[in-house]
Each structure stands twice: as C-alpha cells, then as structure tokens.
Amino acid sequence: MDSKPAAEGLRLRHKAGSVGEPREAEKIESTQSKTQSPASKVHAQVAAAQVADVISLLLAFRFINALCVRTFFQPDEYFQALEPAWRIAFGADSGAWLTWEWQHQLRSSLHPAIFGLAYKAAEGLMTFLNLFPPFKAFMLVALPGTLQAVFAALGDFYTWKLAMDIYGRGSNAPWAALWMTVLSPWQWYCSTRTFSNSLETTLTIAAQCYWPWELLGDAKASKEKPFQQEGRVASLRISLVLAAVAVLLRPTNLLLWLVVLGVSLTRLAPVGKAPMQTSTLLVLFREIVVCGTAVLAVSLVSDRLYFGFWTFPPYKWLYFNISQSLAVYYGHMPWHYYLSQGVPLLTTTFLPFTLVGLYKAASAKDLSPLQSSILGTLNLTALTMITVLSLISHKEVRFIYPLLPILHILAAPYITAFFTQTPSSPPTTSQPTPVTLRHKLTLTNLLSLNLLLAGYLTLFHQPAPLSVLSFLRTDFERLHRDALTLGTPNQEKETTKETKELFALFLTPCHTTPWRSHLVYPALRARALTCEPPLHTAPGSKERETYLDEADRFYLRTTPQGGEYGVGFLGEEMWPLSSSPHTDGQGEEDIGKKRGGEVPRYIVGFEGIEPVLRAFFEEADAPGKGMGVTLTRVWSAWNGAFNEDWRRRGRLVVWDTGVYGGSYRGTGAEGKGEEGRVVEEL
After folding, report:
1. pLDDT confidence of residue 500
2. Secondary structure (DSSP) of 288-343
C-alpha cells in the first residue's frame, strides 16, 4: 500500500470540500498533476464519470436485489416502519397495525415518514392515472423495497468512497471494499429491507465519509485550521446532520460518534509545544449544537404531527428498555453473542480478513500517520460498540449492522493482498495498480458460498409469510370487487355482509407475517394472535415471570408429556361460550351453548396446528362442533428447509372454514349458490 499518495489524496479531497463532491477535488488533483508525467494525470471528467458509473451500477444492482428478496426475516421490517408509514399515508382507519412501541412513543416518526410520503405520492399519482386497484396494490407492496434499494446503493457507494479517501486512488483496497459490500450475503439479505438499522447503516457510513478526518492529523496539520478551508464547514454540517438523524433513529448509534468525537478532541488538545486549537474547537462545538438542535427540532415537529402531542421517543426508549427491563422479554443472549455469532454472521466468509484488519488497524507500519489514525479510530468505534452492546441482555445482529461498512474497509487491504499479486515495478498512474489473481480456487469457493447463502436466504428461507398475503389479497380482490379502496372504507359498504366478514384469522406466532403493507385494503379484515409485553407488571415480579401473551397461551402445552395445545385457548378465548343456549335449527335446544366470536372465512397457520383445529371443530365431542366449520385446505406453501422455532416448522397452510359463499370449493350454507359453483368449475 502506497501511503503517501493516499494521505495526500485525502487532504486534497477534504480541501476541495466534502467527500463525495468530485468536481472541486478533481480540479485540485488536476492542478497538481501538471507537474507530473502525462501518464499519471487523471482528468476531472474521467473521475466524475467513474463516480457516476459506480452509482448507476449500484442502483441497478440493488433494485435487482430488492426484487429478489422474497422471504420474511424479522417483524421489525414491517411493524416498525411500514405499518406506521401506512397510517401516515392513509389515515387512522386504514387498518394499519401499530404495536405497543408506537402506542407508547418509543420510536421516532422520521423513518416511517419517509415511506409514508412515498406511499402517499405513489397512490396520488396512480389515482390520477386511474389505474386498476389490484395493480395499485401490487405497486404499493413493491414500493418500500424499491425505495430502500436507493438507500442501500448509497451505503455501498459511501463505503467505496471512504475507502478511496483513506487508501488513495492508486490503491486496489477501495475496489476490494466495494466488491466485499456487493458480494456480502448479509448485505444482499438485509440492505434492501426496511429496517431502521438498514437506513442507520447508510446514514452512518455517509456521515463518516463527510467527517473531517484531517482533525486526526499531527500538530502541524492541525495548525492548518481545516475549517477555514473552502467547503469544510459545509462538509462537517452534512456529517453532523446525518449522524444526528442516525442517533434519533437508533439511540445506540451515539456510541459510535462519541468515540469519533472523543478521538478528534484528544488530537485538538495541546500536546507538547503545540497550542490548543481553540478556533477549531469552537467551530466544531458550534456546528454540533446548531446541527443537533436543527435535527432535533425537525424530529420533535414530526413526532408532534404523528402522535398528536409533544413527545421525545429517545427518552421513552431509554425508559422502557432500562428502567422497565422490557428488552429481556424479547430474548436473553450470552455476553459473547456478538463475538461468537454477530460478527461472523455479518462478515461470513470475509471473517478471517476482518479479524486481521481489526488486529492490524492501529499498528500497520506502511501507513501514513493520518491513515493510521483514521483506521485506528474506525477500529476503536467497532470494538467499543460491540463491547458496550454486549453488556445488554437482548442482542440482535442487526444492532451492530452499522459496523459492517467499517469492517469491510478495515479488511479490504488484506483481502487484496491475499488474492492479488501486484507487479514488481511501481505504478506510473494514479489509477488502481494492475493485479494478477492468485488463490483462485479459494476465491471461487468463497464467492460461491456467498452466492449460495444469499440466494437461499432471499428466495427459499421463509418465503411463505409473504406469499400467503398475496394469496389472501388477490382472493379478496376476486370476492369483493367493490371494496378495493385504499383509504377509509365507505361507511355504507362497511355495514354490508360482504365487507363485514372476518376474512382471515392467523393462528401463528405473533407477527409471523407483514400486515397492512401487504394486505393493503382496509376492508380486508383480519385478526392475529398478539404478543404485547407485560407493561402492567413490575420488573422482577412473579407476575412478569409467569406472564404469557396471547400467542404463548395458544401454544401452551397442557401436559408435561406434550399433549394437545390450543384447544383450550380456542374454546375459552377465541370462541368462548355465551350465556344462552342455542337451537339446532329445528326448534330443539342444541347440546351445549352457542359460542361467541367471529368465525373467519380463512384460518392461516403452520401445518402443525391442523390436529388442533380438527380436534376443536370436527371430532365427535369437539367443543366447536356446532359452529358449522368444515376445514378444507385451499393453499399451502413451503417455508424453508429448517426453522429454529418449532411453532413455525412445516408448510404454511390456509384452511377454508366453509361458512362463507364464494370459496374455492363452494361449500357451506352460502357456498352452494351460483358464485360457489362458478369457482368450483374454475
């Protein structure tokens, strides 16, 4: 690695303005290149075209990536982003499912507002064009992934750009970092999903790219007063605004920026005969206060508009997760989780090179002082964030996702050195040095494994939770063609029998599928088992330890030997007995009492619950025998080769209860009409 050109290139780009603004930077490089040989010149238009090409290819790549993601990962992708976004776009009566976090203001409205505005704009345009409602629904379902693809592509671009600023244009390490992020299975699996962590990752690497890293230079460099250079204050403002938004989305992101700011402040402090850089400190703190206040004000106004009153979600988040200890309710992981599982899952086959990069980041001898300081700071941010988050009981790989671009940048020179061989003669241009591949078999196996992991996870691991909603939505469009509105359902139609029916009941672990962002139509009424946390209980109390949510009560086994679960829940909570007896239709009082609750058109669940349903509805002495339900499978789908949760194993199935007309089999009291016969023939 040639450190001197790289360090000089970093200073030039920062003097020119913010990183990622090639025009002014290339003017300076072009001016400097006048003293160099003609072969070493890089024209500004060539460099700008290279940036444009990289961005265009990344956008196309991530759009394809978004289209290929056909599987379910975690509920937060939908319930912490798209459900509140749907409510923003289509109103409180649109059928969006707001979880307890939104009811208690634990989340910032900034993230869902992005998708809510996109929903509103797309729906308005399609309404103006008078497009067919099913096509509008299809486009709205695909819209969030398409928008997130743009954020994912920007994250890839800024990973490459920061690596270019650190290692220099003549190094191959930036291109290795770009290929690592493009070929990362985790990036393919998660970057185009609408997690707040995905946007946080893009905001973080972009903010780091605009950060004035020259503050980490030696005392002599500090005397140059970087904020007096053209464009540097604007670059700092962009960095601080992006960082502030990332912190508001995910408060744990503050850990990363405390390290970066702390290291920068230590370099500005007086060392030896070098005086304290007072003017630089004043500008830094001024911009932190101004930019932080501006972003905070925007966030407060956004939350005021969304929730209807003044609130501060980061405080609520800290209160519920620390004082109420609710994070443990969602899982308790060992202290080494991020070391033994988190980082390996993020980096997959690049893990060995990542470990080498972390080890050598602050001690590499072939780097300039500025390069060494930058890489050492990035290394310290990664280690600090992993260490602090390891102290929290509830852990998820997504929580350290913002570190992935940093890990790629740290590992880039070592993966380059392992798989390439540079010529013995020094390079004569500022373009990447021509290389020859080596260890080709290892590289082929590494990339093949990455592609297999990415392909399986995005196409075959848990695809049923998405495809079942497509089935339900399209069947609703077939049965209720006059109820395909996206806003508040028409009050007259809402009272009719067609739109009043409970269309689907999900007897699955809670939040197994997306909700209104895929069901779309408000008139498509559905119900699912819930899993609200025990907000009413005190931390450490026996009541909290024995608390069971609705999904837990359904799946609770009644005997130590693993007897039939669910039947008691269906009879006592889902369809409880009413207080008055009913007749059998011939004037005689039927055995037992009539059961209350709505009977759905369809029941959705994993195939393991079929014996439970038949034990409740169809056996001779079944508690629900008199409800007129006759179960018939009308749809099922494979849900992957394995699942760690026994409740989600097997195929996902849709059973028709037979109590409504127009079903696929056309049975039941109302299913023997004309509409039912037509469907049977089809």
Report:
1. 78
2. HHHHHHHHHHHHHHHHHHHHSS---HHHHHHIIIIIS--GGGG----TTHIIIIIH
Strand 504-506 and strand 602-606: the pairing is: parallel
DSSP string, 497-509: HHHHS--EEE-SS
pLDDT tens, residue by residue, 594-615 = 888 899 999 999 999 999 999 9
The whole-chain average pLDDT of the chain stands at 84
Q: Residue 123 in contact with residue 517, Cβ under 8 Å?
A: no
Distance CA 598, CA 582 (A): 16
CA dihedral 442, 443, 446, 447 (to 10 degrees): -150
pLDDT for residue 9 is more than 80: no
The confidence band for 671, taking pLDDT boundaries of 50, 70 and 90, is: very low
**If 0-12 CB within 10 Å is exposed, 13-18 middle and 19+ buried, where does residue 289 land?**
exposed
User: For the chain, what is the radius of gyration of the CA atoms?
Assistant: 29
Describe the crossing of helices 110-128 and 196-210 by its angle, rounded to 10 degrees: 110
Instruction: Say what the pLDDT of residue 210 is.
Output: 96
Alpha helices in 434-494 (DSSP H): 440-459, 464-479, 491-494
Q: Other CB atoms closer than 10 Å to residue 334's CB: what's the count? A: 12
pLDDT (average), residues 344-350: 96
Can you read off the two tokens belonging to residue 184? 């990362």
Contact 155, 205 (CB under 8 A): yes
Give the predicted TM-score (pTM) of the model: 0.88
Question: What is the rounded average pLDDT of the residues 67-77?
Answer: 95
618, 205, 642: which is closest to 409 by C-alpha?
205
- Tokens 């309404």 appear where? 127
Alpha-helix runs per DSSP H in 328-463:
337, 343-347, 351-360, 369-390, 404-419, 440-459
Q: Tell whether the torsion through CA atoms of 654, 655, 657 and 661 is positive or negative.
A: positive
Residue 672 has pLDDT above 70, yes or no: no
Tens-digit pLDDT profile for residues 177-199: 999 999 999 999 999 999 999 99
The token pair that represents 29 in the structure block: 């490089």
Find out whether 624 and 575 touch, Cβ atoms under 8 Å: yes
